Structure formats: structure tokens, C-alpha cells
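Q: What does the assembly look like in three dimensions?
Context provided by user:
Components: two
Sequences:
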Amino acid sequence: MKFVEEYRDKDKVQLIVNRIREISKKEISLMEVCGGHTMAIHKFGIPALLPGNIKLHSGPGCPVCVTSTNFIDTAIEYSKNRNFIIATYGDLIRIPGSDSTLDIEKAKGANVKVVYSVLEALEIARQNRNKAVIFLGIGFETTAPISAAAIKKASNEKIDNFFLYSSHKIMPPAMAAIINEGVKINGYICPGHVSAITGSEIYNPLCDQYKVGCVISGFEPMDILQSIYMLVDQFEKDDPKVEIQYKRAVKPEGNLKAKSIMNEVFEFGNDWWRGFGEIPRSGLKLREKFFSFDARHKFPVNVQEVKEIKGCICGEILKGLKTPADCKLFRVACNPSNPLGACMVSNEGACQAFFRYGVRKNAKFEK
Amino acid sequence: MCLSIPAKVLSIEKDIARVSVGGSELSAGLHLVDDIRIGDYVLLHCGFAIQKISEENALEMLSIFNEIAQSEAGEI
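A: Here is the predicted structure of the complete assembly.
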């Protein structure tokens, strides 16, 4: 059992596809919230397997994509201070700020370190006690507990030159915002690894209030197709509910230890999302007890007014209103070698998924 | 970003495990999980184990598919 290949069996995939085709009668719009699902769906060619009445839309679950330009501009300002070391996950360094990227600043001599784990950032802080190490904390409920664990470790071990610049966000407010903006969604393919932490109950208010089905899905082709089957089945029976397809990793109560650490370190605050603007109580800010590790409090900076890229429709793509193929910049001016918008930079952004797996406008998937 | 991959626990020292992902060895912080043993599979995310993978549930799903496949074969 490797928990990967077993879920890529061609015959079983076909079996689920046949079942979906048997039960699906009505037009249905589903949104995969998570960028990891967007990538998997296009990598495995899932839209081509589905009947034409099932539409899949990409959602806002790509942390790099929804991060504000203001956050990037602030990180770039930090990087210009030669007493600072910026530690960041790799995706973020190529995201365009108003006038620069962290990558460009690094080339000019800024001390920007790409880390795989926040534990590496802590180690950098330990070895460079005369510098302030600022870790750029992005990500949803999957990643936030990891930053929280690092803050606790820094606090316990008195690593007082480690600071978190948090742009951590939570998923449900954005999922509600999409429906409130009038985007027609009949079911959410809910993020599997967010839910491994949170459990399934975070989707209950969404399901109750908006009558939208929520199925927590794994990331292999059989997982995703089974989740689509479950959502279609709910929709055909007019019985929206919260269900877990990804049972091998998601318990209804989630990971209690991780939730407790996250709650100890963070509290909710308003946050800004690309495409949505400010969403109330959608961000995670450090609690007052940990302000001495909070880059926002220790090193406040004022950045110039944000300049957004002309013609980029990243914001509308993140809400499921448009697809990358609708963008004039797509492929020509904006591609993975020269990304203009965040959705092309991130390796789970919808634009990069469309580019990499060759999805074209008006592609006919019907067999 | 929320990408997490199944990893097999090879050894554990205090709160750090060595894990195998398709033959590559990596470190995984165990700060967010309890009761992890050598041989377990965990979900690895940004250098941390975020959840133990349940073999029981994994097998259950696959056996359902096998049953469906067999019943369909029987119908033909």
C-alpha cells in the first residue's frame, strides 16, 4: 500500500466515469476550491472524461495566488534591509510586486532564502543571531499550524530574532464570498489537506446556509471522480450535505492537536484576498502574547500604493467567473517563463495548470 | 501549497522523523501529531507530518471499488 498508485487504476476510473454518466441528468457547476485539485484535475485529464452537463470551475484555494500585492511589496521592502534575512517557501519569490519581485531583490544582493520547511528558517535564525529572520507565512489551515508550531518553538527556545509575517488565511469565508458574489455553484469539491487539519464541520454552515453540497476529496483521479459522483448524486436527489470522500486522511474532527496549537497562536482578523478584496475574519493574525514574534508589530513599513498588472484577470479566475483561456495575456505575454499574474507563477495556479496541460478555450470535452 | 504527500516513517528521534517518499529520505516534524510509529504512513506537508493515514479506511475504499467491479462483471 503506497496510497498513490492504487488510486490511479484505469479500469476503476472508467467504472466511476460510467456511474457518473448514468446518474447525471441536470446541468451542474462544481468548484474545486484547492489549487492542488486544479492541478490534479488537469494533469489527469478529468474534464475530458465527464459529460458536458458537468462543469468544473477553479476556485480561490491557491495561497500564492490570493496573496495581496501589498504583502509582496512589504516583503520586498523588508528584503532591502541588510540586517534582515527573508525566509520563504519557493513559490513566493517570483510573485510580482508593484515594481519588483523577491527574486529580483535577491539578485541585487538581498538575503532571501528559500526554505522547504519553517524549521529551516528557525535554524537560519539560530545561526544568525545578529540578523532578524522574517519568515513569510502564507497558506491555509494546512500550513498555518506549522507556522504556529514554529512560533511556539521559537518562544520556548528563546530564538528572539525569528519573526513571522503572516498572511495565513482560512478557507470557508472565501467559499461563502464566492456564492455571495452570485457565482453559481451547486457543489464544492472541498480541500483534502485543509480538512485533514480542520475536520469536516467547518463546511456545515456553508451547506446549511447556501444549500450547497460539500465533499472533501483526495487528490488522485479515483478520489476526485468519486467526489464528483457524490456531489452529482446529492444534486440529483436535491440533498446537499457535507461528506468525506478522503477518509484515509480526514477525520470528522480533524487533527485536534494541530487545531489546538493553531488556536493558541493565532486569532481571526480581516484579510485581503486577490479578486475579493477584504473578507471579514478570513485571516490568521498572531495573538498579542506572541507579538514579539510578529513582523507586522516589530517592523511596520509603509509601502507605496499598489500597482496592479493591466489586463490580468487573475482575480476573476480565482472566483470562477473566468478561465485562463479568457485572458488576453495568457500564453502570449504571460507564461511560466515570464509570469505577469500570480495564477501563472504558482505551480498550482489555474493559469499554470491550463498552460502546462494545454487546456484551450472552447475545448470540446463531450465524447 | 497545501500539497501533502504520503510518506513512510523510517525512524524517529525526539520530535523529528525520517520518512521515505518514493525512495527519497526526508525529515518530518512530529509536532502536530501523536502516536506515530515506525512503519506508519503520514501526510507530509512543508516538512511536517500533519496526519496519520488510515490504512483501514484506504483499504475499505478500494474494496468497495473491487466489489462494484465484480458485480458489474457479473451482470455481463
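Follow-up: Chain A touches chain B through 52 residues (CB under 8 Å).
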